[in-house]
Design goal:
single chain, 141 residues, alpha/beta, 26% strand, T6A_TsaE, tRNA threonylcarbamoyladenosine biosynthesis protein TsaE, nucleotide-binding, cytoplasm, tRNA processing
């Protein structure tokens, strides 16, 4: 487990880019953190680091956003996901099977459904207006 401190959105995005360099097809990243913590900013960095060409936006209303590139990424919001059927209907496991990197915000809402999944777990805590404490478990940076 590693803990990082960032002091701006740009630093959070840069840490996401750094993590992207360690990822492989089918990797799962599970995010926890409150509203406005920086989960989407971190995902913006991951997508950029993977070479994705689409704009990164919060998947709050869409449930999933898919970003195309040499290593595609599926970006999920699990806030309203509560059952295995919900995950399956959203194509969660299909994206993993197809080799996309899957990043899931609000993973605590589906924790029991994902407990057995091999995953990189990232917790982001706001420590100030622009500062964050980011804990990464399951990846070496």
């Amino acid at each position: 487990m590693a803990v990082f401190e960032t002091n701006s959105k740009a630093e959070t995005v840069a840490l996401g880019r750094r993590l992207a360099q360690t990822l492989h097809p089918g990797d799962l990243i599970l995010f926890t953190g409150g509203l406005g913590a920086g989960k989407t900013a971190f995902c913006e960095g991951i997508a950029a680091g993977l070479g994705c060409t689409d704009d990164v936006q919060s998947p709050t209303f869409a449930i999933v956003n898919y970003y195309r590139g040499p290593q595609p990424m599926a970006h999920f919001d699990l806030y309203r996901i509560s059952t295995l059927a919900d995950l399956e209907t959203a194509g969660f496991f299909d994206y993993l099977d197809e080799g996309a990197v899957v990043a899931a915000e609000w993973s605590e809402n589906a924790a029991s459904l994902l407990a057995e999944q091999r995953a990189i777990r990232i917790d982001i805590v706001s420590t100030g207006d622009t500062s964050r404490r980011i804990t990464i478990e399951g990846a070496q940076l």
